[in-house]
Amino acid sequence: MAELITVARPYAEAVFRLAKEANSLPAWSEALAVLAAAAQDPLAVEFAANPKFSASQVQALLTELLGARATPQVSNFVATVLESRRFALLPAIAELFEQLKAAEEGSVTAHIESAFELTAAQLDEIKSILTARVGKKIETTVSLNADLIGGVRMTVGDDVIDASVRGKLAALAARLTS
User: Fold this and answer.
1) pTM above 0.90, yes or no
2) pLDDT at 2
3) Residue 107 has pLDDT above 90, yes or no
4) What's the mean pLDDT when you consider all of the chain?
5) Which of 16, 56, 94, 151 could anchor a disulfide with 32, C-beta 3.0 to 4.6 Å?
6) Cβ contact 39:88 at 8 Å
7) Helix crossing, 25-39 with 2-21: angle to 10°?
8) How many CB atoms neighbour CB 166 within 10 A?
9) Cα(119)–Cα(35) distance, rounded to whole angstroms?
């Protein structure tokens, strides 16, 4: 995964600069979301990887999928990604772009995994703790992960804060075996 992010980062940064200069961050965000969704579809991945189809044919399909979002700049970006055979990077590029956009807007996204459903009060408490820690407005996504046994695991950018029972057990086991 780290390799994908490393390769995707220059694309995301270039697109972000372009979008910022053109004052079109929301439009690029939408276009990248569509492209990322396409790159996660098994049929689209198979189509893009099939040597029977040229990069321009794949680009035409993606341009049609984008509809009005396919501005000349977006089309050039798609062509560059496809010519470099980087179709699989589109979800990572979109994710990194969103992180850059959120940072520009003064917020960050935190993904919270919880062993159990969080109440609104618990979520607010976690958000306030994270806000104090990172000093920015926090947007959250929440998912359930029963493997955590109890507690939560929070991911903000590259930082992972593991306050789960599973994480504490793993840390204890590591200390006992070393």
Assistant:
1) no
2) 58
3) no
4) 90
5) 94
6) yes
7) 150
8) 17
9) 34
Burial class (CB in 10 A: 0-12, 13-18, 19+), 48: buried
Q: Rounding to the nearest 10 degrees, give the CA dihedral for residues 155, 127, 163, 118.
A: -110
Only one residue has tokens 């984008």, namely 66
Position 172, amino acid = L
Q: Helix crossing, 55-66 with 42-49: angle to 10°?
A: 150
pLDDT at 113 exceeding the cut of 80: yes
- Helical segments of the chain, H only: 2-21, 25-39, 42-49, 55-66, 72-83, 90-104, 120-134, 165-177
Do residues 34 and 74 touch, judged by C-beta distance below 8 A? no
- Residue 112, both tokens: 């919270």
Question: What pLDDT is recorded for position 106?
Answer: 83
